[in-house]
């Protein structure tokens, strides 16, 4: 067989991994073997947390809706029940943003929803 | 709680490195909202759960768990907090010193005599989430045993203490409140255990329509006493 030198193939592979781990601490951004383990964990966490991000965002919207409606004397559970009864299809993301940016519109929605008991 | 014992509460000193900050070890206390709460006649745990929500900032629609935008809370009259049942004599505060056989305990009564603010502080910090912000949030909670607090003077001029009222309690125990329904009781009725009856009236927020004691009858606490 002809002679094959390995050349710079390995170096290119390792450089890509080290590019991903820029900003990591001590050996994890300098040395390939520690950096690769660090990188594998980081990619795994990123995969999982892309799905967790949606759950956490919904959790924060709910907390903000709860605090906004309690200023008017109602809790989140009663509010959502009345929303469903009066067939208002607004979601929690929009309601939480309304409570911050347009508090008058939020108050109008609350009044409409409460009167439909 | 009819105790008139002196307590080991030390007043905050005006040290030179505390002069500029409004609150020690709390950055940005000027931008936060300050609230004042009166703890007279309030049940301990029910107050503590509301306070933990305020300290986290969960009563504001701008809630963000990564930043700490909770209110600074000043609690006043902490030595007049109520504990239901026999917890005042029986509730134990325990800790371990690290040495073998070093489990120590203290009743709520002894703790109240030494420092009544610790009771509320432990209750609230146990209800906060156990993360890196827990210590900061307990520092924002300032408890005073009497009716006066330290935040009075020229240094605290820009600080408004907004009073906080506890929300109404939904008492679902309708069956038990029947004994306090005075329209159903006969006219000659008089409560024999007067202390317990007045305590119940206070907890259910009903006025006492039987203020005069029955002549010649001793309540439970007075049976063994000699005049």
From TrEMBL, chain A:
GO molecular function, one term: rRNA binding
Region (Disordered): 1-29
Subcellular location(s) of the protein: Plastid, Chloroplast
Example of a GO cellular component annotation carried by this entry: chloroplast
Record field: compositional bias (Basic residues): 1-17
Keyword line: Chloroplast, Plastid, Ribonucleoprotein, Ribosomal protein, RNA-binding, rRNA-binding
Coiled coil: none
A Pfam family assignment: Ribosomal_L20
GO biological process terms held by the UniProt record: ribosomal large subunit assembly; translation
Origin: domain of life: Eukaryota
Family, per entry: Belongs to the bacterial ribosomal protein bL20 family.
Functional summary from the UniProt entry: Binds directly to 23S ribosomal RNA and is necessary for the in vitro assembly process of the 50S ribosomal subunit. It is not involved in the protein synthesizing functions of that subunit.
Protein name: Large ribosomal subunit protein bL20c
From TrEMBL, chain B:
Domain of life: Eukaryota
Single GO molecular function: structural constituent of ribosome
Annotated signal sequence range: none
GO cellular component, one term: mitochondrial large ribosomal subunit
Keywords: Ribonucleoprotein, Ribosomal protein
GO biological process: one example: translation
Matches recorded under SUPFAM superfamilies: Ribosomal protein L13 (SSF52161)
Family matches, as Pfam families: Ribosomal_L13
Xref: Gene3D superfamilies: Ribosomal protein L13
Family: Belongs to the universal ribosomal protein uL13 family.
The protein, known as: Mitochondrial ribosomal protein L13
Naturally occurring in which organism (per UniProt): Chloropicon primus
Lineage start: Eukaryota, Viridiplantae, Chlorophyta, Chloropicophyceae, Chloropicales
